[in-house]
Amino acid sequence: MEVARGLTGWTIRSTVEKPYYAIGKVEFKPELHDFGAKQILGRTLPAASKDQPKDEQERIASQDLDRILEMVTIHPASARHIATKLCRHFIADAPPASAIDQVGAVFTRTRGDIRETLRTLFRTREFDEQRGNKLKRPFTFIASALRACSAQTDAGTEITEYLNRMGHAPFSYPTPEGYPDTTPHWLGTLLWRWNFAVALGENKIKGTKIAFDELRKNAGGDPGLMRHILGRQPTDDEARAYHDSGAGLALLLASPAFQMC
User: Fold this and answer.
1) How far apart are CA 87 and CA 85, in angstroms?
2) For residue range 130-166, what is the model confidence (pLDDT) as tens digits?
3) Torsion sign across C-alpha atoms 177, 181, 185, 190
4) Same domain, 33 and 90
5) Is 69 inside a domain boundary?
């Protein structure tokens, strides 16, 4: 409740207010702000004195948002929460405590510098040793498949429909934390991943096109294409399946090796 009081006055310019421009712009309206003192996480946001000039009252009130963000950023629970989410996303569904501790310590020391926090994560031993055990979420799977195939796409409704079928409709998760980042949640829609891989490989997605012969040539033939898609040398079974399937590209994109990161 105290945080909500500190955020009063921040609003979005609507379509019914004059002047009718910059619709959707975030702006501060001092006449809607609660100028009283607030107690947040053991700290006090000072009140604006009624004796102060209006400009000074507005300055103090508009700084409440930055002060709240700073309080949250430097709180120890925030460092651990952010570090855990980052390690879960980049390392493993159940990230090692040692990695979380390292990443959280840098987040705290740098006061929330995400670039330095991520740099630390990518240098951890845990990140290096546990690569390839995270199932790509549908959005990442589709984006990486299009990129790997040098596809030309309009990113239109045909692509979005595949995301819908895979359970990852853009901007549609009902709660603020967003779509889950763990493997079990996505295993129920594997069939639609395979359908997408086949349709992409056969150029059956409207608005999306791949030039397979050119892709294969630029990769250095079939061996190079397999290395390019899988990110490593194919196993004997993978190479055999690629040649025997009659749909080698689709098979590569649908394979565990490509879907895991």
Assistant:
1) 6
2) 878 899 999 999 999 999 999 999 999 999 999 999 9
3) positive
4) no
5) no
Percent of the chain topping pLDDT 90: 73
pLDDT of residue 201: 94
In a domain, 180, yes or no: yes
Other CB atoms closer than 10 Å to residue 245's CB: what's the count? 12
Whether residues 93 and 166 fall in one domain? no
pLDDT tens-digit profile of 1-55? Answer: 999 999 998 888 887 777 677 788 888 888 888 988 999 998 898 887 767 787 8
Domain residue limits at 88? 75-129
Distances (CA, A) of 205 to 40, 44, 56: 52, 57, 58
CB-based contact 28:6 (threshold 8 Å): no
DSSP secondary structure string for all residues of 76-103: HHHHHHHHHHHHHHHT-SS--HHHHHHH
Residue 246 phi, psi (nearest 5): 80, 0
Residues 235 and 173 in one domain: yes
112 and 147 together in one domain: no
If asked whether residues 211 and 155 sit together in one domain, one would say yes
**230/236 Cα distance (integer angstroms):** 13
Same domain for 159 and 240: yes
Query: Could you tell me if 162 and 102 lie in one domain?
Result: no
How many structural domains is the chain composed of? 3
Omega before residue 19 within 30° of 0, cis: yes
- Measured CA to CA, the distance from residue 215 to residue 237 in angstroms comes to 22
Cα–Cα distance measured from residue 198 to residue 194, given in angstroms and rounded to the nearest whole number: 6
How distant, in Å, are the alpha carbons of 116, 155, 216, 217 from that of 213? 42, 22, 5, 6
- The residue whose two tokens read 């997605």 is 205
